[in-house]
Amino acid sequence: MPDFTNQVAFITGAGSGIGRATALAFAKAGARVVVAELNEVAGQETVDQIQQLGSEALFVSCDVAHADQINAAVQKTVDTYGRLDIGINNAGIGGKYARLTEQTNLDFEQMMAVNVGGVFYGMQAQIRQMLTQKDGDHPVRDHPARGKIVNVSSIAGVRGMPMGALYSASKHAVIGLTRTAALEYVRRHIRINAVCPVYTHSAMVDELVREVPDMEEKMRRRIPIGRLGEPEEIAQAILWLCSDDNDFVTGQAIQLDGGMTAG
Ligand SMILES: NC(=O)c1ccc[n+]([C@@H]2O[C@H](COP(=O)([O-])OP(=O)(O)OC[C@H]3O[C@@H](n4cnc5c(N)ncnc54)[C@H](O)[C@@H]3O)[C@@H](O)[C@H]2O)c1
Q1: Can you tell me which atom of ligand 1 is nearest the CA of 153?
Q2: Does pLDDT of 142 surpass 90?
Q3: Where is the chain membrane-spanning (predicted)?
Protein backbone atom coordinates (compact mmCIF):
# COMPACT_ATOMS: atom_id res chain seq x y z
CA MET A 1 0.00 0.00 0.00
CA PRO A 2 1.39 3.49 -0.82
CA ASP A 3 2.40 5.62 2.16
CA PHE A 4 1.00 9.15 2.44
CA THR A 5 2.31 10.00 5.90
CA ASN A 6 2.47 13.78 6.43
CA GLN A 7 0.61 14.47 3.20
CA VAL A 8 -2.62 16.44 3.08
CA ALA A 9 -5.44 15.17 0.84
CA PHE A 10 -8.43 17.37 -0.09
CA ILE A 11 -11.41 15.34 -1.36
CA THR A 12 -14.69 16.76 -2.68
CA GLY A 13 -17.92 14.81 -2.25
CA ALA A 14 -16.29 12.69 0.46
CA GLY A 15 -19.54 12.19 2.38
CA SER A 16 -20.62 9.15 0.38
CA GLY A 17 -19.67 6.40 -2.08
CA ILE A 18 -16.38 6.71 -3.94
CA GLY A 19 -15.39 9.93 -2.14
CA ARG A 20 -15.86 8.44 1.34
CA ALA A 21 -14.02 5.22 0.41
CA THR A 22 -11.16 7.35 -0.94
CA ALA A 23 -11.06 9.50 2.19
CA LEU A 24 -10.88 6.40 4.41
CA ALA A 25 -8.20 4.80 2.23
CA PHE A 26 -6.01 7.94 2.35
CA ALA A 27 -6.47 8.14 6.12
CA LYS A 28 -5.44 4.48 6.52
CA ALA A 29 -2.37 5.24 4.40
CA GLY A 30 -1.30 8.03 6.78
CA ALA A 31 -2.70 11.20 5.13
CA ARG A 32 -4.52 14.02 6.87
CA VAL A 33 -7.83 14.27 5.03
CA VAL A 34 -10.05 17.24 4.26
CA VAL A 35 -13.66 16.27 3.54
CA ALA A 36 -15.13 19.02 1.31
CA GLU A 37 -18.83 18.22 1.05
CA LEU A 38 -22.23 19.82 0.45
CA ASN A 39 -24.04 17.44 2.83
CA GLU A 40 -22.79 18.41 6.29
CA VAL A 41 -24.19 15.37 8.12
CA ALA A 42 -22.63 12.92 5.64
CA GLY A 43 -19.33 14.82 5.56
CA GLN A 44 -19.08 14.93 9.34
CA GLU A 45 -19.82 11.18 9.45
CA THR A 46 -16.81 10.53 7.19
CA VAL A 47 -14.66 12.66 9.51
CA ASP A 48 -15.93 10.68 12.52
CA GLN A 49 -15.07 7.39 10.79
CA ILE A 50 -11.55 8.65 10.04
CA GLN A 51 -11.04 9.84 13.60
CA GLN A 52 -12.19 6.44 14.86
CA LEU A 53 -9.26 5.00 12.90
CA GLY A 54 -6.99 7.31 14.92
CA SER A 55 -6.28 9.55 11.91
CA GLU A 56 -6.73 13.29 11.39
CA ALA A 57 -9.56 14.79 9.33
CA LEU A 58 -11.34 18.09 8.83
CA PHE A 59 -14.84 18.76 7.51
CA VAL A 60 -15.32 21.81 5.28
CA SER A 61 -18.77 22.72 4.02
CA CYS A 62 -18.47 23.31 0.28
CA ASP A 63 -20.64 23.42 -2.83
CA VAL A 64 -18.20 22.70 -5.67
CA ALA A 65 -20.42 24.54 -8.15
CA HIS A 66 -19.17 27.81 -6.63
CA ALA A 67 -15.56 28.91 -7.11
CA ASP A 68 -15.59 31.08 -3.98
CA GLN A 69 -16.60 28.09 -1.83
CA ILE A 70 -13.84 25.84 -3.19
CA ASN A 71 -11.29 28.64 -2.82
CA ALA A 72 -12.38 29.11 0.81
CA ALA A 73 -12.23 25.34 1.44
CA VAL A 74 -8.68 25.08 0.07
CA GLN A 75 -7.68 28.13 2.11
CA LYS A 76 -9.12 26.50 5.25
CA THR A 77 -7.08 23.38 4.44
CA VAL A 78 -3.87 25.40 4.23
CA ASP A 79 -4.73 27.42 7.36
CA THR A 80 -5.26 24.14 9.26
CA TYR A 81 -2.55 21.83 7.90
CA GLY A 82 -0.11 24.27 6.28
CA ARG A 83 -0.11 22.70 2.81
CA LEU A 84 -1.97 20.70 0.16
CA ASP A 85 -0.40 17.66 -1.50
CA ILE A 86 -3.35 15.88 -3.07
CA GLY A 87 -6.59 17.13 -4.66
CA ILE A 88 -9.36 14.66 -5.51
CA ASN A 89 -12.18 16.28 -7.48
CA ASN A 90 -14.85 13.66 -7.00
CA ALA A 91 -18.16 15.44 -6.19
CA GLY A 92 -20.69 14.87 -8.92
CA ILE A 93 -24.35 14.37 -9.75
CA GLY A 94 -25.96 11.77 -12.01
CA GLY A 95 -28.73 13.99 -13.35
CA LYS A 96 -31.99 12.97 -14.95
CA TYR A 97 -32.37 9.57 -16.65
CA ALA A 98 -33.99 10.85 -19.86
CA ARG A 99 -33.45 11.31 -23.57
CA LEU A 100 -31.68 14.41 -24.87
CA THR A 101 -34.92 16.10 -26.00
CA GLU A 102 -36.35 15.69 -22.49
CA GLN A 103 -33.41 17.37 -20.75
CA THR A 104 -34.05 21.03 -19.86
CA ASN A 105 -31.83 24.11 -19.86
CA LEU A 106 -31.84 23.93 -16.08
CA ASP A 107 -30.71 20.26 -16.20
CA PHE A 108 -27.86 21.39 -18.47
CA GLU A 109 -26.84 24.27 -16.22
CA GLN A 110 -26.88 22.17 -13.03
CA MET A 111 -24.91 19.32 -14.62
CA MET A 112 -22.22 21.61 -15.99
CA ALA A 113 -22.04 23.69 -12.81
CA VAL A 114 -21.37 20.69 -10.55
CA ASN A 115 -19.62 18.09 -12.71
CA VAL A 116 -17.51 20.45 -14.86
CA GLY A 117 -17.43 23.58 -12.69
CA GLY A 118 -16.49 21.54 -9.63
CA VAL A 119 -13.45 20.05 -11.37
CA PHE A 120 -12.43 23.34 -13.01
CA TYR A 121 -12.68 25.44 -9.82
CA GLY A 122 -11.19 22.61 -7.76
CA MET A 123 -8.11 22.30 -9.94
CA GLN A 124 -7.65 26.09 -10.09
CA ALA A 125 -7.63 26.41 -6.30
CA GLN A 126 -5.49 23.29 -5.78
CA ILE A 127 -2.89 24.10 -8.45
CA ARG A 128 -2.52 27.72 -7.31
CA GLN A 129 -1.73 26.45 -3.80
CA MET A 130 0.57 23.64 -5.01
CA LEU A 131 2.60 26.11 -7.09
CA THR A 132 3.45 28.02 -3.90
CA GLN A 133 4.94 24.87 -2.33
CA LYS A 134 8.44 23.49 -2.76
CA ASP A 135 9.11 20.14 -4.42
CA GLY A 136 9.11 17.30 -1.93
CA ASP A 137 12.31 15.52 -0.89
CA HIS A 138 12.73 12.25 -2.68
CA PRO A 139 15.51 9.69 -2.25
CA VAL A 140 15.82 8.98 -6.01
CA ARG A 141 14.39 11.73 -8.18
CA ASP A 142 15.47 15.38 -8.37
CA HIS A 143 11.96 16.65 -8.93
CA PRO A 144 9.24 14.49 -7.39
CA ALA A 145 5.72 15.79 -7.83
CA ARG A 146 4.90 18.69 -5.56
CA GLY A 147 1.22 17.98 -6.07
CA LYS A 148 -1.04 15.22 -7.33
CA ILE A 149 -4.60 15.63 -8.59
CA VAL A 150 -7.13 12.98 -9.59
CA ASN A 151 -10.44 13.95 -11.19
CA VAL A 152 -13.33 11.50 -11.15
CA SER A 153 -14.74 11.10 -14.65
CA SER A 154 -16.65 7.97 -15.75
CA ILE A 155 -16.88 5.36 -18.46
CA ALA A 156 -19.55 7.81 -19.71
CA GLY A 157 -16.60 10.18 -20.27
CA VAL A 158 -15.17 7.92 -22.97
CA ARG A 159 -18.38 6.53 -24.49
CA GLY A 160 -21.91 7.70 -25.17
CA MET A 161 -24.50 6.94 -22.51
CA PRO A 162 -28.11 6.63 -23.72
CA MET A 163 -30.47 8.50 -21.32
CA GLY A 164 -27.51 10.41 -19.91
CA ALA A 165 -26.31 12.85 -22.59
CA LEU A 166 -25.59 15.69 -20.17
CA TYR A 167 -23.82 13.40 -17.71
CA SER A 168 -21.75 11.93 -20.53
CA ALA A 169 -20.90 15.40 -21.87
CA SER A 170 -19.84 16.57 -18.41
CA LYS A 171 -17.58 13.54 -17.90
CA HIS A 172 -15.98 13.98 -21.37
CA ALA A 173 -15.25 17.57 -20.29
CA VAL A 174 -13.55 16.31 -17.11
CA ILE A 175 -11.11 14.32 -19.25
CA GLY A 176 -10.41 17.36 -21.45
CA LEU A 177 -9.67 19.47 -18.38
CA THR A 178 -7.48 16.71 -16.93
CA ARG A 179 -5.35 16.15 -20.03
CA THR A 180 -4.87 19.85 -20.70
CA ALA A 181 -4.01 20.76 -17.12
CA ALA A 182 -1.61 17.79 -16.96
CA LEU A 183 0.30 19.17 -19.96
CA GLU A 184 0.28 22.73 -18.64
CA TYR A 185 1.68 21.83 -15.21
CA VAL A 186 3.84 18.75 -15.83
CA ARG A 187 7.04 20.84 -15.83
CA ARG A 188 5.91 22.46 -12.59
CA HIS A 189 5.88 18.99 -11.03
CA ILE A 190 2.16 18.58 -10.60
CA ARG A 191 0.71 15.28 -11.85
CA ILE A 192 -2.92 15.25 -12.93
CA ASN A 193 -4.93 12.16 -13.91
CA ALA A 194 -8.53 11.00 -14.10
CA VAL A 195 -10.31 7.77 -13.23
CA CYS A 196 -13.26 6.52 -15.29
CA PRO A 197 -15.30 4.06 -13.23
CA VAL A 198 -18.07 1.91 -14.64
CA TYR A 199 -21.26 1.45 -12.51
CA THR A 200 -20.11 1.28 -8.90
CA HIS A 201 -22.18 0.63 -5.78
CA SER A 202 -22.98 4.04 -4.27
CA ALA A 203 -25.93 6.31 -3.45
CA MET A 204 -25.89 7.54 -7.08
CA VAL A 205 -26.29 4.01 -8.51
CA ASP A 206 -28.81 3.00 -5.82
CA GLU A 207 -31.02 5.87 -6.99
CA LEU A 208 -30.86 4.71 -10.61
CA VAL A 209 -31.63 1.13 -9.55
CA ARG A 210 -34.70 2.37 -7.65
CA GLU A 211 -35.88 4.49 -10.62
CA VAL A 212 -35.40 2.08 -13.52
CA PRO A 213 -36.83 -1.48 -13.49
CA ASP A 214 -34.21 -4.27 -13.85
CA MET A 215 -31.45 -1.65 -13.91
CA GLU A 216 -28.97 -3.54 -11.73
CA GLU A 217 -29.30 -6.67 -13.87
CA LYS A 218 -28.89 -4.58 -17.05
CA MET A 219 -25.75 -2.96 -15.61
CA ARG A 220 -24.29 -6.33 -14.61
CA ARG A 221 -24.91 -7.78 -18.07
CA ARG A 222 -22.99 -4.91 -19.72
CA ILE A 223 -19.87 -5.46 -17.59
CA PRO A 224 -17.71 -8.40 -18.76
CA ILE A 225 -16.53 -9.24 -15.23
CA GLY A 226 -20.20 -9.78 -14.30
CA ARG A 227 -20.58 -7.41 -11.38
CA LEU A 228 -20.59 -3.73 -10.43
CA GLY A 229 -17.52 -2.01 -9.02
CA GLU A 230 -17.06 -1.31 -5.31
CA PRO A 231 -16.11 2.20 -4.09
CA GLU A 232 -13.04 0.74 -2.34
CA GLU A 233 -11.75 -0.57 -5.70
CA ILE A 234 -11.97 2.90 -7.23
CA ALA A 235 -10.29 4.35 -4.14
CA GLN A 236 -7.30 2.00 -4.53
CA ALA A 237 -6.75 3.16 -8.11
CA ILE A 238 -6.89 6.79 -6.97
CA LEU A 239 -4.27 6.11 -4.28
CA TRP A 240 -2.06 4.38 -6.84
CA LEU A 241 -2.25 7.43 -9.11
CA CYS A 242 -1.25 9.71 -6.22
CA SER A 243 1.62 7.54 -5.01
CA ASP A 244 5.10 9.09 -5.10
CA ASP A 245 6.32 5.86 -6.71
CA ASN A 246 4.28 6.82 -9.77
CA ASP A 247 5.98 10.01 -10.86
CA PHE A 248 5.87 9.12 -14.56
CA VAL A 249 2.07 8.85 -14.83
CA THR A 250 0.26 12.02 -15.83
CA GLY A 251 -2.53 13.11 -18.19
CA GLN A 252 -4.17 9.67 -18.12
CA ALA A 253 -7.82 8.71 -17.94
CA ILE A 254 -7.72 5.24 -16.38
CA GLN A 255 -10.72 3.05 -17.13
CA LEU A 256 -11.94 1.02 -14.15
CA ASP A 257 -14.65 -0.96 -15.85
CA GLY A 258 -14.45 -4.72 -15.35
CA GLY A 259 -13.40 -5.02 -19.00
CA MET A 260 -16.24 -3.02 -20.56
CA THR A 261 -14.13 -0.92 -22.90
CA ALA A 262 -11.76 -3.77 -23.83
CA GLY A 263 -14.09 -5.13 -26.49
N1 LIG B 1 -21.20 5.22 -8.81
C2 LIG B 1 -20.94 5.09 -10.09
O3 LIG B 1 -21.38 4.13 -10.77
C4 LIG B 1 -20.02 6.06 -10.78
C5 LIG B 1 -19.48 5.69 -12.02
C6 LIG B 1 -18.65 6.58 -12.66
C7 LIG B 1 -18.35 7.80 -12.09
N8 LIG B 1 -18.91 8.13 -10.90
C9 LIG B 1 -18.56 9.45 -10.36
O10 LIG B 1 -18.01 9.27 -9.07
C11 LIG B 1 -18.20 10.45 -8.31
C12 LIG B 1 -18.75 10.07 -6.94
O13 LIG B 1 -20.02 9.50 -7.13
P14 LIG B 1 -20.64 8.36 -6.19
O15 LIG B 1 -21.08 7.28 -7.07
O16 LIG B 1 -19.73 8.07 -5.06
O17 LIG B 1 -21.97 9.12 -5.73
P18 LIG B 1 -22.58 9.51 -4.32
O19 LIG B 1 -23.87 10.14 -4.67
O20 LIG B 1 -22.54 8.34 -3.40
O21 LIG B 1 -21.57 10.61 -3.76
C22 LIG B 1 -21.47 11.90 -4.29
C23 LIG B 1 -21.13 12.86 -3.17
O24 LIG B 1 -20.91 14.17 -3.74
C25 LIG B 1 -21.60 15.11 -2.94
N26 LIG B 1 -21.96 16.27 -3.77
C27 LIG B 1 -22.90 16.31 -4.75
N28 LIG B 1 -22.96 17.56 -5.26
C29 LIG B 1 -22.04 18.29 -4.60
C30 LIG B 1 -21.63 19.64 -4.67
N31 LIG B 1 -22.22 20.51 -5.53
N32 LIG B 1 -20.64 20.07 -3.85
C33 LIG B 1 -20.06 19.22 -2.96
N34 LIG B 1 -20.41 17.93 -2.84
C35 LIG B 1 -21.40 17.49 -3.64
C36 LIG B 1 -22.82 14.38 -2.42
O37 LIG B 1 -23.36 15.02 -1.27
C38 LIG B 1 -22.25 13.00 -2.14
O39 LIG B 1 -21.72 12.92 -0.83
C40 LIG B 1 -19.13 11.35 -9.13
O41 LIG B 1 -18.38 12.33 -9.81
C42 LIG B 1 -19.74 10.37 -10.12
O43 LIG B 1 -20.16 11.00 -11.31
C44 LIG B 1 -19.73 7.29 -10.23
Answers
A1: 7
A2: no
A3: none
